What does this fold into?
Amino acid sequence: MGQMNILELWNAMGWIAKGVVIILLLLSAYSISVMIERWLTYRNARKQSRLFTPAVAECLKDGKIDEAIALGEQYNKSHLAKVLVSGLHELQAHAKSKDIPGESIEASKRALERATAIVIEDFKRGLGGLATIGSTAPFVGLFGTTIGIINAFTGMKTEETAGIAAVAGGIAEALVTTAFGLFVAVPAVWAYNAFTNRVETFTVEMDNSSSELIDYFLKRRSETRG
It folds into this structure.
């Protein structure tokens, strides 16, 4: 019975209201695809980073820069691996030596900063779309609401009758588009906030790992000169 009512309501809706619902369906499909893709990306980054971190620490402890780079390329979905490998490439020429020039360390630092910026932008991919959908979907639904109310009062004027029966169809049409707009917007806003917090956490982790790598090579250099 509920399905029949939905079908009857759809058939009774005007073409503008139907267009609004179709647009909202497309926005919903896009936001869901972004949510799934981003969730998988963040999950893989977190999972691989947990495996990469202790392994690369062992390599650096023994001064095995080449092995550390190979390890980072193996865990290519890890955000920490992407960043640290870029810095290690600048120091690869000194893998066999403990005497690391200051210019190489500075170059490694700049490479780490560039890689961090690139990874952050990659993590943010699609989040702007979620934010846009979350902020505009209610207004798209409101547009359908406005059209529904206009149709309701137009129908009342045309039929020259008053009462709920004269405006029921238009009001129902208006409520459907409003509800659907909120249905699309709320999950998009929730996902955007959750993913933004996750990106901020990843950013802190990359900054900390970059600082630790530079500190490691500075300490190694000072030990050599000492």
